[in-house]
Hints:
The chain is α+β, with helices and mostly antiparallel strands. It folds into two domains: about 90 residues, Immunoglobulin-like; about 60 residues. It contains three helices and seven strands. A seven-stranded mixed β-sheet has the order 1-7-6-3-4-5-2, with no helix packed on it. Strand 6 and strand 7 form a beta hairpin. Helix 1 crosses helix 3.
Amino acid sequence: xxKLFTDKAELFECDINLTGASYNKTKARLVIETSDFSLxxxxxxxxxxxxxxxxxxxxxxIDENIxxxxxLEVIAEDTYFVPWESNFEIEQSKKVxxxxxxxxxxxxxxxxxxxMVKVSGIRxxxxxxxxRQHVINILRILIRENINIKNLSIKRNKLNNxxxxxxxxxxVKQKRKVINKVVKVLSKKK
Length: 190
């Protein structure tokens, strides 16, 4: 039984002995026949009788688990021969099969008679930044937004939004002190 694969290309190879004909004028082809259709692949015969027929991937042409007959046809100087014939079956070269053993819910092991501990209400606390770090962060945002002491009165709405958003994302303990330091640094930068 000859095996063909749907998911990989193959090369059918054999040696042919010709008597009374030239290898140069000899052609070979491989015919794959099922009950519904036939496929033909052309090959070459070398000067010493080596026959090679490339078989393309059969995926999309033939389904898996189909069987039939395969034969080598040789045409030597207008004479037709069938020197080899066999049955074939189609498979995949790569397969994955899964066998589920069981689908049971594993019982919870809660039959312990010893002491039990239940932990709840854990909150992740944000690490508070120092006043100095808050001032530096706010100044970076203001510089990026092109807010300085000269245009502070013009861009006060934008400034208020930036400060409100920063304070909502970063817990600032002494808000008034941080804002005063930001204004002080802005007034020094001209």
